[in-house]
Amino acid sequence: MSIPDVVIEETPVALVYNGISHAVMLASPTDLEDFAVGFSLSEGIVARPGEIYDLDVTAHCAGVSVELRIATERFLELKQRRRNLAGRTGCGLCGIDSLDALAGMAQEKSLAATPLSIASIHAALRDLPGRQPLRESTGAAHGAAWVDMDGRILHVREDVGRHNALDKLIGCLATRRIDTARGFVLITSRASYEMVQKAVNTGIHAIVALSAPTGMAVRLAEKAGLLLAGFANGERFVAYTQQERLRGDTLANMNLRGVMALASSDE
């Protein structure tokens, strides 16, 4: 007996600013307005949603184009630092031609030390599996969820690419004017440097990942004051930075190489 299968789609998505194509990304063709806004903010193309004056999504035979009209000052800045981001799915450094350029990628920001409840993290982890329809149907989608301080998942965005899922979520938060200091992001992938960079650049205070972080991600999170946790499951997670911000009835710390702490609850 044959059983039909659902295969996830990858669609070329061109991001076009003031008539000039800046990047072509492979993405799942959903929530593309959120994706364009989130990418524009997380990459520093615009500083706030109000600098995007117009946005139009158009389907073509070869893919989808998202036409954005942005503030003239921002567009002039973009023209000066344009780089090749075509097909970016795993490398956050595409188009960087020197170590000095890399050093300047992350904006100098220091996030406030907002406390975070361990119970809230565990509540979100229990709820997440039922909030990912694309992953459920295809088995191939990453997810990024916005969780409030009480552990309630308010918004979820999915994509074939982990960076895209986070950008979609960032766009969702921005257009809804959600205070990014009042919650945290839960991601189904590893936490790489560029994902932490996107979070810092858009004012997100905490990331909890189901998989591992990289060393560069941990160092950037520590410098910026972002709480970064990984290896999260229903029982425990590993907090790599800002352990002092975690609050709960049970909090056990195990120092591992000076950057890790194991946090669990007795729920």
Our Rg estimate from Cα atoms comes to: 19 Å
Mean pLDDT: 86
Q: Which stretches of 5+ consecutive residues score pLDDT under 50?
A: 84-91, 93-99, 252-267
**CATH level-1 class of the largest domain:** Alpha Beta
Largest sheet: 7 strands, mixed
**Beta-strand segment tally:** 13
Count of folded domains: 2
CATH topology of the largest domain: Cytidine Deaminase, domain 2
Q: Name the CATH architecture of the largest domain.
A: 3-Layer(aba) Sandwich
Q: What is the tally of helical segments?
A: 8
The helical percent reads 25-40%
Order of helices and strands: EEHEEHHEHHEEHEHEHEEEE
Topology of helices and strands:
Blueprint: E1 11-17, E2 20-27, H1 32-42, E3 52-59, E4 64-70, H2 72-80, H3 99-103, E5 116-117, H4 118-127, H5 133-138, E6 142-148, E7 153-159, H6 162-175, E8 183-187, H7 193-201, E9 206-209, H8 215-224, E10 227-230, E11 236-239, E12 246-247, E13 261-264
Parallel strand pairs: 1-4, 5-12, 8-9, 9-10
Antiparallel strand pairs: 1-2, 3-4, 6-7, 6-8, 10-11, 11-13
Task: Give a structural overview.
Helix content is 28%, strand content 26%. The protein has 267 residues and is an alpha/beta fold. It folds into 2 domains: 11-103, Ubiquitin-like (UB roll), CATH 3.10.20.10; 116-264, 3-Layer(aba) Sandwich (Cytidine Deaminase, domain 2). Strand 9 (206-209), helix 8 (215-224) and strand 10 (227-230) form a beta-alpha-beta unit. Residues 84-91, 93-99 and 252-267 have low confidence and may be disordered.
